Task: inverse folding
């Protein structure tokens, strides 16, 4: 258990002043004995003797429990301040674990090596090489975003989310020379009905339906 310190900062400052006066009197010959100086200035004799022998005031001495040296601490502070100029806070985004594993350069290179071998083996032309993507997304879902609000507002602002959670699939295909197939959109529905907002789609887009909004054999 640490010792109980009864003296406040004011008392400690007054005692330090008394110690400095006692040291001055002893060094200038106005007082000849440590015990006499300690009694006159009402300070501990052992403390006065230690200060005369070169011991520094405790508040000016580095604590023994520090893990780093003074130089190491100053270097660490400088590094943190320099780092603060190079970084900024951003929103994170979810990323599929299986996709992250496929970002290994060795795995990617092996894949393209196999693709090149197949192209050479069967004489496939660049215009016959397509990349297909089938992204799906839920209608009516809101994402977190930074917005501008009054500085006196404490709670996070709310963004209303519609109740519609229907799934929609978009099919895109582009070949290696840059030519793309027409966009193909699949909505969840039992019966195809061309709604008014469909008119905002480009004329060459293809729209179809399925029971769940996904691509199926039909």
Result:
């Amino acid at each position: 258990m640490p010792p109980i310190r009864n003296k406040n900062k004011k008392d400690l400052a007054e005692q330090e002043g008394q110690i400095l006066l006692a040291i001055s009197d002893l060094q200038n010959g106005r007082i000849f004995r440590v015990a006499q100086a300690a009694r006159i200035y009402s300070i501990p004799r052992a403390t006065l003797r230690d200060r005369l022998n070169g011991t520094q005031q405790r508040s000016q001495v580095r604590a023994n429990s520090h893990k780093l040296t003074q130089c190491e601490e100053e270097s660490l502070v400088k590094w943190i301040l320099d780092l603060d100029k190079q970084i900024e806070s951003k929103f994170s985004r979810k990323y599929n674990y299986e996709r992250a594993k496929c970002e290994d350069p060795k795995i990617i290179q092996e894949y393209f090596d196999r693709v090149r071998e197949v192209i050479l083996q069967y004489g496939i032309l660049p215009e016959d090489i397509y990349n297909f993507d089938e992204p799906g997304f839920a209608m009516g879902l809101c994402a977190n975003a930074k917005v501008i609000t009054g500085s006196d507002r404490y709670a996070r602002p709310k963004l209303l989310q519609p109740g519609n959670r229907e799934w929609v699939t978009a099919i895109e295909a582009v070949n290696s020379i840059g030519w793309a197939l027409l966009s193909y959109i699949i909505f969840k529905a039992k019966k195809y009905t061309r709604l008014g907002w469909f008119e905002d789609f480009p004329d060459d887009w293809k729209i179809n339906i399925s029971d769940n909004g996904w691509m199926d054999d039909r």
Observations:
- Residues 9-28 form the longest helix (20 residues).
- The radius of gyration is 39 Å.
- DSSP finds six helices and five strands in the chain.
